Amino acid sequence: MTMIPAQLATRRLWMDLFDGTAAAAMPRTNIKEKKDAYVVETELPGVKKEDIALICERGVLTITAKADEAKDTEEARYIRKERPEGEIVRRFALQDIQEDSISAKLENGVLTVTLPKLKPQEIRIDIE
Fold first, then answer.
1. What is the DSSP string of 80-125?
2. CA–CA gap between residue 92 and residue 65 (Å, rounded)
3. Angle in degrees, CA 22, 23, 28, rounded to 5
4. How sure is the predictor about 21, in pLDDT bands with cuts at 50, 70 and 90?
5. What is the DSSP-derived secondary structure letter of residue 97?
6. Three-state DSSP class for 64?
7. Does domain 5-116 have CATH number 2.60.40.790?
8. Where are the domains of the chain?
9. 3-state secondary structure (DSSP) of residue 124
10. Which residues have a Cβ under 8 Å from the Cβ of 118 and sit 6 or more positions away?
11. Distance of CA 77 to CAs 24, 87, 108, Å?
12. pLDDT tens-digit series, residues 85-123
């Protein structure tokens, strides 16, 4: 069976959607919930610590990073580019965060942000 160009383009689009290329513009992220904290792990290969900004406001964690743009050279050109480049922004809404105790580290291209949960306050109720 011979495919016409429109069929080839459609087939390629679907292949890209299902092999993850469409989501390549956003770095892959895992979020774990522990008893006392949320842990957000985001892949940022090749991004330097000074090119990352973290903001947590009203339970929304915003990760902004600047990934260097790869350039084609006369010797080589890209056939496929899946790594994000330029400015990357991800936002995650999490509840009951203790915003003044958030910590983060960048190790081996993975940004790990630990967001401690607020401790529930026990309220004693007097009985009349």
1. ---S--EEEEEEEE-SSB-GGG-EEEEETTEEEEEEEBPPPPP---
2. 15
3. 160
4. very low
5. B
6. strand
7. yes
8. 5-116
9. coil
10. 96, 97, 98
11. 19, 22, 26
12. 788 899 999 989 999 999 999 999 999 999 999 987 777
